[in-house]
TrEMBL record:
<dbReference type="Pfam" id="PF01219">
    <property type="entry name" value="DAGK_prokar"/>
</dbReference>
<keyword id="KW-0443">Lipid metabolism</keyword>
<dbReference type="InterPro" id="IPR000829">
    <property type="entry name" value="DAGK"/>
</dbReference>
<comment type="similarity">
    <text>Belongs to the bacterial diacylglycerol kinase family.</text>
</comment>
<keyword id="KW-0418">Kinase</keyword>
<keyword id="KW-1133">Transmembrane helix</keyword>
<keyword id="KW-0812">Transmembrane</keyword>
<keyword id="KW-0067">ATP-binding</keyword>
<protein>
    <submittedName>
        <fullName>Diacylglycerol kinase family protein</fullName>
    </submittedName>
</protein>
<keyword id="KW-1003">Cell membrane</keyword>
<keyword id="KW-0594">Phospholipid biosynthesis</keyword>
<keyword id="KW-0444">Lipid biosynthesis</keyword>
<dbReference type="InterPro" id="IPR033717">
    <property type="entry name" value="UDPK"/>
</dbReference>
<feature type="transmembrane region" description="Helical">
    <location>
        <begin position="99"/>
        <end position="121"/>
    </location>
</feature>
<feature type="transmembrane region" description="Helical">
    <location>
        <begin position="34"/>
        <end position="51"/>
    </location>
</feature>
<dbReference type="GO" id="GO:0016301">
    <property type="term" value="F:kinase activity"/>
</dbReference>
<keyword id="KW-0808">Transferase</keyword>
């Protein structure tokens, strides 16, 4: 089905949202790392709420990691489709996409440390 070109078409938006959820569910059901990252994010958000720490930096860091994991899954699928046999450039594409997830995950850990450790230290009686 082709788009009518209108960004305000509710049917088009609903259909696109369905495709997006299908991709998220596929990734959750097929990718162990995505499941781990989802639940790590949930725990980080719960910790932030419990500690009354700012939620926005934690939520944004989680969204970045999960988004890049979805892109990584898409890159892997396209590379596997285009190059079923081993090829050096296929490896580069997959490794670079995985590297993006790793960089975002490291950044998310830094955000978690900066945002969550000070209030956690106070709760633990250290400050």
């Amino acid at each position: 089905m082709r788009s009518d070109g209108s960004a305000l078409n509710l049917r088009r938006w609903w259909r696109s949202t369905g495709f997006a959820w299908a991709g998220i569910l596929y990734s959750y059901n097929s990718q162990a790392n995505f499941r781990i990252e989802v639940w790590a994010g949930v725990l980080a958000l719960i910790a932030a709420a419990f500690l009354r720490a700012p939620l926005a930096p934690i939520a944004l860091a989680c969204a970045l990691v999960l988004s890049l994991e979805l892109v990584n899954t898409a890159v892997e699928a396209v590379v596997d489709l285009a190059s079923p046999e081993l090829h050096p450039l296929a490896k580069v594409a997959k490794d670079a996409a995985a590297g993006a997830v790793l960089v975002a995950s490291a950044g998310a850990l830094v955000v978690a440390a900066v945002v969550l450790l000070p209030p956690l230290w106070k709760v633990a009686g250290g400050g």
